[in-house]
Design goal:
It is built from 6 helices and 14 strands. By secondary structure, it is an alpha/beta fold. The strands form 2 sheets. It has a 7-stranded mixed β-sheet. A 7-stranded mixed β-sheet has the order 7-8-9-10-11-12-13. α6 links the parallel β12 and β13. The chain binds zinc ion (ZN) (2 copies). One zinc ion binds next to loops.
């Protein structure tokens, strides 16, 4: 499995940090997780296989996590020849189908009927989604918006967890326990902390409780980059930490 951080920023528009987006690639699956503004460009810049993405999973409905999805579907419909025939599945929390219907009402029926098979699957914490090649996608609710979820992508003994946007949650830490890679939002410095996002200190506490083999931080608003994120996390979690940039990737071999 290869996990790439395409967009490590927020709706604070920066040249080097796009809105949220991540790509998980296996031999059988190209799963795009979130698709905020700038992610279509990041896919093209990196030479990533945007034409053959097989699944898209949304964590929640803030526009910095899905703003480029209509563009991506339009690109699949008109952006290359011969036109796409490969099916795609859009996965997200309850409300995803309604979101796409409302986007289709604004942009046109092509958005949900683009001329190749497009299915929408709403995921709940109770039900795992089995993807090709033995990849299992599961979610858990997180404290951010009513619909917000974190995702776990597992295959064999390997497991990657992405928090999406979240506030502090002991249940999330327990759910992410012992994963290989924890991709964790790190939005705001302590002085600006709110219940819907994490500070570096709270990321360190989450990682200390979850004990991932590797911690990657993402979703940085500019003020949090003016504090020593690495030191604040290291004071709480002793494992390896990456402050992710757009285009960073993490390879996980099968066990
Ligand atoms: Zn966000
Ligand atoms: Zn959000």
């Amino acid at each position: 499995m290869r996990f790439t951080t395409l967009g490590t920023g927020t709706i604070s528009l920066l040249p080097d940090r796009s809105c949220s987006g991540y790509l998980l690639e296996t031999a059988d699956v190209r799963l795009l997780i979130d698709c905020g503004s700038g992610i279509t460009r990041r896919l093209a810049e990196r030479g990533l296989p945007w034409q053959t993405i097989t699944h898209v999973a949304l964590t929640h409905f803030h526009i910095d996590h899905h703003g480029d999805l209509p563009s991506l579907i339009f690109a699949w419909k008109y952006g290359f020849l011969p036109a796409r025939t490969l099916p795609v599945e859009i996965i997200g929390p309850v409300g995803t189908a309604d979101l796409l219907q409302r986007l289709a009402a604004a942009y046109g029926e092509w958005l949900t009927a683009p001329g190749f098979p497009l299915t929408i699957r709403e995921i709940t914490p109770a039900a795992a989604v089995e993807l090709p090649g033995g990849l299992t996608l599961t979610c858990t609710a997180v404290p951010h918006t009513a619909e917000s979820v974190a995702y776990s992508m597992g295959r064999g003994a390997r497991r990657i967890v992405y928090t999406g946007d979240t506030g502090p949650s002991e249940a999330l830490a327990a759910w992410a326990r012992s994963c290989d890679l924890l991709v964790c939002e790190c939005s705001l410095p302590a002085g600006m902390g709110i219940p819907e996002h994490l500070t570096p200190e709270q990321c360190g506490e989450l990682a200390a409780a979850a004990a991932p083999k590797h911690l990657a931080l993402t979703h940085f608003y500019p003020p949090v980059e003016r504090v020593d994120v690495r030191a604040l996390v290291a004071a709480r979690y002793a494992g390896p930490v990456t402050l992710a940039r757009d285009g960073w990737h993490f390879d996980l071999e099968d066990e």
